[in-house]
Amino acid sequence: MDDVLSFAVFLLTGVPLIAMLSVLTPLLRLLRIFPRSLSIDEQSLAGKVVIVTGCNTGIGLQTAKLLAHKGAAVVMACRSVEKAAAAAAATSPGAGSFHPIELDLADLKSVTRFVRSFEDQFGASHLHALVCNAGVPAKLGTRTVQGFEMAFGVSFIGHFALVLELLPRLKRCGGRVVTLSSVMHRFAQPGCSANWNHAAFDTYPMHLRVFTSSYSDAKSAMVLLAVALRARGIASSAVNPGAAAVPCVAPIISAEPLEHLYLSPYWVPSRLPVLDLAGPFVGAFPNLSKPEQAGAQGVALDAERLWSWGETVLQASHDREAQSQLGRAS
Ligand SMILES: NC(=O)c1ccc[n+]([C@@H]2O[C@H](COP(=O)([O-])OP(=O)(O)OC[C@H]3O[C@@H](n4cnc5c(N)ncnc54)[C@H](OP(=O)(O)O)[C@@H]3O)[C@@H](O)[C@H]2O)c1
């Protein structure tokens, strides 16, 4: 019954919103409020090493292509090296180069393995930028290997573990960090620190689950991560890429038939040009905004709370792993 009510809320709010956007977007584009393309400066990135997570497709791939064309060595940190290699083979790296290395952000052990492989290939001193791009939508009942809710676990927990491992090197090399957020960060739960483990995620009403729950918290956490990194002397920016025409809702295949219905009004216009607010993949060249502008009052405090909460849960996760290894050995 709750889900039916929740669906009614969606019909009353989501459908008129989509209809309004469908009419307004072409109009705004005519008025040049949403540009179709942006000019990119010509600065060379030759000799720079940049890691981009989840860049075998979508915004990450366009970012990787652009960086390589400007001369960077782009480390394609992807959960499937085969997919990354295929994407790299289909693209000319221009003046730069592509280096696929396996990274599954849904498994903290894979994060550690990735950092070791990266060190083996690039030595101890390189890393000019890290683009924390990979992300997945919230999907009912899915958890990372270490048990975090999937959308939050991949976007925030996995990237946070990666940032922690790379932090000394980023500091040494003066490396920058870019985190991918979304307009959805605005729907994060207020004071969500208490719920960051999303233990109750599966019991949220459907409209919270699909639109405003863990995905929004994850995207808010990515803004806070950029803020916390700045406080630690790392040049960092949180990016809202706008709406890029990628099959972003396609992976949401759930046992819940109503969730399909929920997303179908979004899926249809996402296949048509009307919702393509930024033009196909122009989202890869985003409006970089200072994280300070993205948050409300107390954002620095929230960023610090998130950082220490993140350190605590990662430590707990390592401790659990060590205990279970001990158990297996004895
Ligand atoms: N598209 C938009 O309109 C939009 C709007 C706002 C924000 N964003 C944000 O922009 C970023 C890129 O989104 P996109 O639209 O380009 O999505 P996408 O096309 O679905 O690409 C997502 C990437 O993340 C990777 N990924 C998923 N789970 C992973 C994991 N466990 N470990 C490592 N990589 C993983 C995917 O790899 P596989 O191919 O193996 O699945 C894929 O390469 C995301 O953070 C998203 O939240 C997008």
TrEMBL record:
Molecular function (Gene Ontology), one example: oxidoreductase activity
Organism domain of life: Eukaryota
Keywords: Membrane, Oxidoreductase, Transmembrane, Transmembrane helix
SUPFAM superfamilies associated with the record: NAD(P)-binding Rossmann-fold domains
Transmembrane segments: 6-28
Annotated family: Belongs to the short-chain dehydrogenases/reductases (SDR) family.
PANTHER family noted in UniProt: NAD(P)-BINDING ROSSMANN-FOLD SUPERFAMILY PROTEIN, RETINOL DEHYDROGENASE
Name of the molecule in the record: Protochlorophyllide reductase
Phylogenetic classification of the source organism: Eukaryota, Haptista, Haptophyta, Prymnesiophyceae, Prymnesiales
